[in-house]
Write a structure and sequence with these properties.
This protein is an alpha+beta fold. It has two domains: 191 residues, no CATH class; 210 residues, no CATH class. It is built from twelve helices and 14 strands. The strands form two sheets. Strands 1, 3, 4, 5, 6, 7, 8, 9, 10, 11, 13 and 14 form a twelve-stranded mixed sheet that branches. It has a two-stranded antiparallel ribbon with strand order 2-12.
């Protein structure tokens, strides 16, 4: 702890060299300001990315059939094949690490394919199992989602997206129990869904009509074909394990060469999200590297100004040494001035940066923005303060060493 006289002495020294102190402190202020703003922007980007994938199963993988690229067991390459209903029980039996499995059918909107009275629109039609809502989670504004009884009984029911609800129905009108025509066939609306994630497969939930998978196959004469298949892994099981086992089963079931990498299109969402995480780590590392580099540059400026200050105060330091001041007193004085100058400038940068982030967050909160809630954590603020103290100490170390080497006799006689 410094006594009152020491604090007054430090403050007098800083204010005596006011113009130089302000100019030097600006480097530290600017470095800390940039660090706070960049960390806040990085946090906003991470928050935005997290909000986009919220509600989507990150432990999922997807499959779709493609043309074969290798000949196998008498079949030529370039053969078309399809995932079919009979593949599902085999996969469920053999892939014990799997949690959920849902086949999916797609029919793109051709013209105004969804109609209610005089209102209509062109929307995606999707057929799936109830488990699909556990993979690409949706929020129900009205009613319910497709259930197992709908699948077994092949009910002509549907869940519509909120955008479809806005177009076909009056604002605030409950559409459940009402009839709409989808691709020329009437279905009863059982729910209205809104997406909880920015990630979607095939099309946006808000503009999609969801039918029971079995109903869609029968109503639209699709036979036993599956366009798309989604699966998730049990907790603690890498998705790659489930993905590889399903790939192997599909190739065995459809006489596809084991080393044909193009015959089955597949996507591992877990790996995609890992890439996003690594990207976030890379961005954070770059932010801290640039921010700390700027702070170090400011610290060098502080060190230089303290060297000039020591030279200007050579006689004063010599007199203090002659009057009994110990090397520790001299070093403490110089280090104290350096730390105080650095911390004051840095804290000002933190306060200004937090204020800018706060104002930016208020502006961004007015709409649906990808960047969300730019801010820094309390831990980061405390860590920055510690960094400032360390930088201030190192910035004053060389000047303090120079001051300690001043000999009283030579200093007093110096003009």
């Amino acid at each position: 702890m410094f006594d009152k006289d020491r604090w007054q002495e430090i403050w007098i020294t800083i204010t005596h060299n006011k113009s130089r102190s302000v100019l030097t402190a600006f480097g530290v202020f600017w470095g800390m300001l940039m660090l706070v703003l960049m960390v806040g922007a990085g946090n906003a980007l991470e928050e935005g990315m997290t909000s986009q994938i919220e509600g989507f199963a990150t432990n999922s993988c997807f499959f779709e059939s493609n043309r074969t690229t290798l000949p196998y067991k008498g079949f030529r390459k370039g053969r078309r094949w399809n995932i079919i209903n009979s593949d599902l029980p085999v996969i469920r039996e053999k892939v014990t690490e799997m949690q959920y499995l849902s086949p999916v059918l797609f029919v793109r909107g051709d013209g105004n394919n969804v109609v209610r009275g005089e209102k209509n629109g062109s929307y995606l039609v999707k057929g799936c199992y109830p488990e699909y809502d556990l993979i690409e989670k949706s929020k129900l504004l009205y009613g319910r989602y497709v259930n197992d009884i709908d699948i077994v009984e092949k009910r002509k029911v549907c869940v519509i997206g909120e955008r479809i609800h806005e177009v076909l129905f009056q604002k605030g009108e409950d559409p459940t129990g009402k009839q709409i025509r989808v691709n020329g066939i009437y279905f009863k609306v059982i729910g209205v869904a809104r997406s909880t994630s920015g990630v979607s497969i095939g099309g946006q939930t808000a503009e999609t009509v969801v039918l029971p998978f079995s109903t869609m196959q029968q109503a639209f004469n699709m036979g036993n074909i599956i366009h798309f298949m989604a699966a998730t892994a049990n907790d603690g099981v890498p998705v790659k394990v489930v993905q590889d086992k399903i790939l192997e089963i599909l190739k065995q079931q459809h006489q596809i060469a084991p080393d044909d990498k193009e015959a089955v299109w597949t996507m591992n969402i877990e790996e995609q999200f890992k890439m996003f995480n690594y990207l976030g780590i890379g961005i954070a590392s770059l932010i801290w590297l640039v921010g700390l580099g700027t702070l170090i540059a400011g610290a060098i400026g502080v060190s230089n100004i303290m060297l000039v200050t020591v030279r200007e105060r050579t006689k004063e330091i010599g007199i203090r040494r002659a009057m009994g001041a110990t090397p520790r007193d001299i070093i403490g004085q110089i280090l104290s001035e350096s730390v105080v100058l650095t911390v004051l400038a840095g804290l000002t940068g933190i306060v200004v940066g937090v204020g800018i982030l706060r104002a930016t967050g208020i502006v961004l909160s007015q709409g649906d923005q990808f960047f969300k809630d730019p801010q820094i954590s309390f831990t980061m603020a405390v860590g920055s303060l510690i960094i400032l103290i360390v930088i201030g100490t190192f910035a004053g170390y060389i000047p303090a060493q120079r001051a300690m080497l001043i000999k009283p006799v030579e200093a007093i006689s110096e003009e």
